[in-house]
Amino acid sequence: MRSLTAVEQFLDERAHRFLERAPAGGLRWKLAEFLVFGLKQAWACIFGALLLAVIFGARLWYPDGAALARNDFLTLAAVVIQVVMVATRLETLRELRVIVLFHLVGTVMELFKTDVGSWSYEADGVLRVGAVPLFSGFMYAAVGSYMVRVYRLFDLRFARYPRRWITALVALGIYVNFFSHHYIFDFRWVLLAAVILVFGRCVMHFRVFRRSFRMPLLAAFLLVALFIWIAENIATWSHAWLYPSQLNGWHLVSLDKLLSWFLLMIISVVLVAWVYKPLPPEEGLTGARLPAKAKRSD
Fold first, then answer.
1. Which end of the chain, N or C, is surrounded by fewer C-beta atoms within 10 Å?
2. CA atoms within 13 A on the CB side of 266
3. Do residues 273 and 197 touch, judged by C-beta distance below 8 A?
4. Of 30-34, 57-61, 211-215, where does the model show the most confidence?
């Protein structure tokens, strides 16, 4: 099992004391596995969940006419969340480097997309680059935070993972297309076919509590993209940003955005895979117990 942070190790030890009393079969075992799966997912989402809660709360309660602009408040809140997570060892410094990379990649895209009118932010605040408030980069960092944490918490392994240089070429094509489709042909459907071809045979193995489970990697991409789409609806309702069609009244974000988020997942996975090399499933992993303790990470 990949190493845990100090806080995660503390929680892991206490969780085992409680969960080891659960039977190894039957309904109670299934409920225990389901509970652990949900708790791990929630823990992996903690950065994004906190940021989304702040965005939602600012929409409901942040006072109009406050001396500090709402966008600047969101930026400062995001910085505080990130600092606290590193200071309390909820994230490791190694993970922080990955998250910063997500932040930079996302901010570059934001600068371009707002310039061509794909979406827009409120014009208040000084903590911004052009039309892009700095908190926007933290939304991409939230995706990066989830990716590196879920990779570790579920001890992800991959059967038939494609060669990393091939996945890097696909991810580069997806990233370039996010920009180039405004000027030339939109290759997203071609890129989707390439993703299916490259990742279609890959199966993700993940460990919850006592057992290991399997899922096609493409299905995992789609599920994560769906949850990001749901979070995007909450964020746009909160006026964190708006699409042109929402300027005259909010409505659900188009389901077409699911494809964009699905393709963005490929970029995310490739970035994480260059830091955490994808490992094959261990022989005899299915049915194995999790160790009661895990090595502490740096």
1. C
2. 30
3. no
4. 57-61
Residue 108, token pair as written in the block: 């570059």
Q: How many whole angstroms separate alpha carbon 266 and alpha carbon 250? A: 29
Q: Which residues contact 72 (CB under 8 A, 6 or more apart)?
A: 124, 125, 126, 127, 133
Q: State the Cα–Cα distance between residues 102 and 56, nearest whole angstrom.
A: 23
- Per 3-state DSSP, what percentage of the chain is helix, strand, and coil (rounded to 5)? 60, 5, 35
For 102, half-sphere exposure in the C-beta direction (CA atoms, 13 angstrom radius) is 30
pLDDT of residue 23: 65
Alpha helices in 69-134 (DSSP H): 70-87, 93-115
Residue 248, φ and ψ in degrees, nearest 5:
-95, 5
Higher-pLDDT residue of 113 and 290 is: 113
- Token reading at 296: 């502490």
State both tokens at 35.
């509970």
71: Cβ contacts below 8 Å, ≥ 6 apart = 121, 122, 124, 125, 127, 128, 133, 135
Confidence of residue 13 (pLDDT cuts 50, 70, 90): confident
Question: How big is the chain by its Cα radius of gyration, in Å?
Answer: 20
Phi, psi (degrees; rounded to nearest 5) at 157: -130, 160
Whether residue 189 contacts residue 230, with contact meaning beta carbons closer than 8 Å, is answered with: no
CA atoms within 13 A on the CB side of 34: 7
- Crossing angle of helices 93-115 and 70-87, in 10° steps, is 160
